[in-house]
Design a protein that fits this description.
alpha/beta; Aspartate Aminotransferase, domain 1; 2 domains; four-stranded antiparallel β-sheet; binds pyridoxal-5'-phosphate
């Protein structure tokens, strides 16, 4: 059986999840009448101590809606250069909202209040208006790095003081929380908006949830509709989200342990130049001249294993719900033999 380490989005719904989805009570969510969507939104908002929530088709739409509601065309978004919102959303910041980006070079994807303080523009006609700060936790491109709660609180305090909005791209926020033994409620009061993915570590087939104040979500709902993201009997998909929150959260630490095992195996190989620190379920590593990424991936594929190229000499492996401890052992054994 294929061991697919390319992404934590490749998981398939389990029979139990499908059964739960099948039994969902549904209605027309554009009319606000889908009880299962409403339940999911209430549930996630309560978990994070936010006022309101909106179920959306993807993490990209969730982030992009947040930017669109927080900013006006010509405004500036401040974020780390590794941010998904800048790297992997098809230029959406410019195309969807007409905003500029000011990129910071943080510590493996993590920016600090001090850095934002130095980057933010003063209030002059001729300067771009700094409006929004975005952080990503965990940060994918930086190897699944985790923000400390203290760092986030400092950023939040500065943003409030400087009249900046503060958005969390929390596609993998549950991995970050698991790594620190924190709960979602520990983030209460820190952010103006939060985007949470159900289709990454939690193993739902589809969906993200955007969180914010009632006023923010009212506006977000309008943008979702405008962009074609208003879904009708979406309760079948929301049910998967509810199931994944109730059943797949506790096990995230197993993914982190499995990632550590892969890291240890990689570090023993002469063809591996560098493995980024592994804090959660993401392992990013660079190969030496000795072995090209394409040759490495081809070899893995011949053993029914998949990873993904993540730069010229760089590879990413992600552990997830469909990667068992036995699969990890197979991968480690295969690396051993190479
Ligand atoms: C995957 C991801 C997203 C977007 O999710 P999609 O559902 O694939 O659009 C946003 N931010 C981060 C950090 C991600 O890893």
């Amino acid at each position: 059986m294929l061991i697919d380490l390319r992404s934590d989005t490749v998981t398939r719904p389990s029979p139990a999840m499908l059964d739960f989805m099948f039994k969902a009570k549904v209605g027309d969510d554009v009319f606000g009448e889908d009880p299962t969507v409403n339940l999911l939104e209430t549930k996630v908002a309560a978990m994070f101590g936010m006022e309101a929530a909106l179920f959306v088709p993807s993490g990209t739409m969730s982030n992009q809606i947040a930017v669109n509601v927080h900013c006006r065309p010509g405004d500036e978004v401040i974020c780390d250069i590794n941010s998904h919102i800048y790297q992997y959303e098809g230029g959406g910041l410019a195309a969807n909202s007409g905003v500029q980006v000011k990129l910071l070079e943080g510590n493996r994807g993590r920016i600090s209040a001090e850095m934002v303080k130095n980057a933010v523009n003063g209030n002059f006609d001729w300067l771009t208006k700094s409006t929004l700060v975005v952080v990503e936790n965990t940060c994918n491109k930086a190897g699944g790095s985790v923000y400390s709660l203290e760092n986030l609180k400092e950023l939040s305090t500065f943003c409030k003081q400087a009249n900046l909005k503060f958005h969390l791209d929390g596609a993998r926020i549950f991995n970050a929380l698991a790594a620190q033994n924190l709960k979602a409620e520990n983030l209460k009061g820190i952010f103006d908006s939060i985007s949470v993915c159900l289709s990454k570590g939690l193993g739902s087939p589809v969906g993200s949830v955007l969180l914010g104040s009632k006023e923010f979500i009212t506006q977000a709902r309008r943008v979702r509709k405008r962009w074609g993201g208003g879904m009708r009997q979406a309760g079948y998909l929301a049910a998967a989200g509810i199931f994944s929150l109730d059943n797949n959260m506790e096990r995230l630490k197993e993914d982190h342990l499995n990632a550590q095992k892969i890291k240890a195996s990689l570090e023993r190989k002469s063809f591996v130049k560098e493995v980024l620190p592994v804090e959660t379920n993401i392992v990013i590593f660079r190969l030496t001249e000795e072995l090209s990424v394409s040759a490495f991936l081809k070899h893995l594929e011949s053993k029914e294993m998949k990873a993904i190229q993540f730069g010229y000499d760089t590879v990413r492996m992600i552990t997830h719900l469909d990667i068992s401890a036995e699969s990890v052992e197979k991968v480690c054994n295969e690396l051993q033999l190479m």
